[in-house]
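Deliverable D2.4 — example input (structure tokens):
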């Protein structure tokens, strides 16, 4: 299974952007059938470089579902896939067991995340012997020699919890790279200026060399995007809100608008030298396929 840092290195050498698409584990067998039977085959036609699968931050079987989906992507579809791993509710001993399981399945790429305390648990306390921050998970992954390639999350508008401001958050992001993260995938944003400011600060001021790939979410539904952005602390620019308000509940029109908006956003990001695009796929293929075709990136020959 290919290591994602090697894919970025090959992309840089060939001067072509690295395309990744993110999914979440479906909650039902019908969702699994749709993902593996329709969504992934449709996306395979435009050949993204790799796929990533999110993971809940609570306990129970949520992380195991992530491993199951990544395993199926790798084994049945020959895809390069990455498991998101959250550490906020794991003890170190549980994490070791979980990473052994991932390694035994042949999973080689991990996005190391703190995660958010489980929804509705405002009194959540990390387990004794647990993790406070993502860099501590990166240390654990790094200590396993080269078993896993390690990515981490970055926040162009600053992480919403970071009261000290964006630059403090970005210095902590630099620290994650110094602890061993080899690439950065960003939170979604709708004003490219946020990404450019973060990328300039990290590369120019802090000397970060790891690829910083912008996360782009094609909008599908006006109410859903207002909820998402409120949850993750991303700004919806006023002209975008006005356009969404005009389109209202017409999801077909919103999807078309979302494709056009994301295409323009991606064009500008790539023209300015972004190393790739991380598309938040929301377990659908239509918008991602349309955007990659609009960008002329769908037909590129790539090593599978
Ligand atoms: C690409 C991407 C994918 C994601 N996938 C998932 C997913 O699959 N599942 C999920 O649950 N969530 C996911 N998230 C959300 C993420 O888990 C949350 O935003 C979480 O709140 C922060 O995670 P982190 O890994 O950035 O944490 P950290 O890097 O640990 O940062 C969290 C906060 O702590 C602060 N901080 C860091 N280090 C220190 C320190 N030494 N001292 C004091 N403060 C510090 C930071 O400034 C920040 O405010 C994803 C986010 C992105 C961008």
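Example output (designed residues):
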């Amino acid at each position: 299974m290919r290591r994602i840092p090697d894919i970025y290195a090959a992309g840089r050498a060939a001067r072509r952007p690295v395309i990744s698409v993110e999914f979440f584990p479906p909650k039902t067998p019908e969702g699994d059938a749709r993902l593996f039977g329709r969504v992934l085959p449709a996306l395979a036609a435009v050949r993204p470089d790799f796929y990533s699968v999110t993971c809940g931050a609570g306990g129970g079987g949520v992380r195991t579902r992530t491993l199951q989906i990544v395993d199926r992507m790798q084994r049945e579809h020959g895809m390069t896939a990455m498991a998101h791993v959250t550490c906020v509710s794991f003890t170190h001993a549980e994490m070791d067991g979980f990473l052994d399981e991932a390694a035994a399945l042949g999973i080689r790429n991990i996005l190391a995340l703190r995660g958010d305390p489980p929804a509705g648990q405002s009194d959540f306390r990390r387990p004794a012997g647990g993790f406070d921050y993502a860099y501590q998970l990166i240390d654990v992954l790094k200590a396993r020699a080269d078993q896993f390639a390690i990515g981490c999350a970055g926040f162009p508008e600053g992480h919403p919890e970071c009261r000290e401001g964006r630059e403090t958050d970005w210095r902590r992001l630099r620290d994650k790279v110094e602890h061993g993260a080899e690439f950065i995938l960003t939170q979604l944003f709708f004003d490219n200026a946020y990404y450019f400011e973060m990328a300039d600060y990290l590369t120019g001021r802090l000397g970060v060399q790891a690829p910083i790939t912008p996360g782009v979410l094609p909008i599908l539904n006006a109410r859903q995007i207002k909820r998402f952005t409120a949850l993750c602390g991303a700004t919806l620019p006023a002209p975008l809100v006005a356009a969404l308000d005009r389109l209202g509940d017409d999801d077909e029109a919103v999807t078309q608008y979302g494709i056009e908006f994301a295409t323009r956003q991606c064009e500008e990001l790539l023209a300015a030298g972004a190393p790739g695009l991380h598309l938040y796929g929301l377990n659908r293929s239509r918008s991602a396929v349309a955007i990659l075709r609009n960008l002329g990136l769908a037909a590129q020959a790539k090593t599978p």
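The chain has eleven helices and eight strands.
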